[in-house]
Amino acid sequence: MTPEILFYIIVAVIILDFLIEKVLDYLNAKHFDDPVPKELEDVYDEKEYKRSQDYKKERYRFGIITSSFSLLLILGFLFFDGFAAVNSIAESISGNSIIIALVFFGIIFFASDLLTLPFSWYSTFVIEEKYGFNKTTPKLFILDKLKGWALMIVVGGGILALIVWFYQWAGSNFWWYTWILVTVFTIFVNMFYAKLIVPLFNKQTPLPEGSLRSKIEEYAHKVGFKLDNIFVIDGSKRSTKANAYFSGFGKEKRITLYDTLINDLEEEEIVSVLAHEVGHYKKKHVIANLAAAIITTGFTLWLLSLFVGNPILSNALGVEEPSFHIGLIAFGILYSPISEITGLIMNYLSRKFEYQADNFARNTYDGEALISSLKKLSGSSLSNLTPHKAYVFVHYSHPTLLQRYKNLRGRD
Ligand SMILES: [Zn+2]
């Protein structure tokens, strides 16, 4: 194969990926106005339903604009040898390949982040604002951005530097060392996420004594779940959308409830959401997800090790002298169809897990309370009640509200 053919394969992969996404979006949008299933008629009143329709359509149009912009950006970059240009800037700064790789990815990351910044600003301060979801201030938005960048420089930069160093030192065996590094890092972050990452962005306070806490403790005791850490997070400082999640394991395990969830739901409903989260833990989903992520990472790195040294990857992007970072970029694009497939498998698995967690909540607490929480949460986030099957299959990590309703009522 010539570098030229590989170049056009890279271009084809990008365009095909875009087209598939757009077809799925289109199919989904065609069903925006379908009649609401009768089981879900009480989610919206007429006025709210109209608002949810407008919201979906506005998000859909905005999605077409942003993804088309990104497509033109990457294609323009490829056809005008952008990667080669950035590479020569990086090489003019240092002769050290770790520093070259850091500068190279630094420029690409910050340039693309700044170019797409107006879109995320518009999404937050125009669209989300219009539908009453946004609580972020411009100051908080900028602060979040800066903190995200700092985290990226320290964590992303550190890991990248180590990988390039492994590659220099161990050649194509670098993937083993990288796999171990990433695995240790993933487990560490999973374990201490709530203590290390969350405090950078949010305030977490233990759920205060009171009837909600007693109900939760009574439930936890009943199912034999040792739960010392129940925290409330100030999600309301960014958005009105509500959530709850589980993090960590062993002694570090904790359940985090958004303050918005506590405001929007009745106590029995909150306990039912919590019972669902406990279900994830009891059914070992936390460990299974972690194991799946580790296996996928190993596979990806192994595949990378087979190709990254091949000069054709660098040549296809217009760079004469092959290097690890250019090979990594080319591989990253060529790998995207495979990551689409692993993504499909992960979403399929995740939907299975959601049913299991729902069933756990129904069997150990109250299925009806969970149904009414799910309906309230869907309603208050103006979510789509009539998504297209293909769209659900590809993108949904959770079953649809209707599917969960039918499952909880035991007739699916
Ligand atoms: Zn879940």
Automatic annotation (TrEMBL):
Keywords: Endoplasmic reticulum, Hydrolase, Membrane, Metal-binding, Metalloprotease, Protease, Transmembrane, Transmembrane helix, Zinc
Binding site for Zn(2+): 276, 280, 354
Catalytic residues as annotated in Swiss-Prot or TrEMBL: 277, 358 (proton donor)
Highest rank taxon of the organism: Bacteria
GO annotation, biological process: CAAX-box protein processing
One Gene Ontology molecular-function label: metal ion binding
InterPro entries: CAXX_Prtase_1, MFS_trans_sf, Peptidase_M48, Peptidase_M48_N
Membrane-spanning parts: 6-24, 60-86, 98-127, 148-168, 174-193, 286-308, 328-349
Cofactor binding, note field: Binds 1 zinc ion per subunit.
Subcellular compartments: Endoplasmic reticulum membrane
Required co-factors: Zn(2+)
Primary location class: endoplasmic reticulum
KW Metal-binding (keyword) present: yes
Residue span, CAAX prenyl protease 1 N-terminal domain: 26-203
Pfam families per UniProt: Peptidase_M48, Peptidase_M48_N
Record's bilayer topology term: Multi-pass membrane protein
Similarity field: Belongs to the peptidase M48 family.
Name by which UniProt lists this protein: M48 family metallopeptidase
Organism: Antarcticibacterium flavum
Organism placement in taxonomy: Bacteria, Pseudomonadati, Bacteroidota, Flavobacteriia, Flavobacteriales
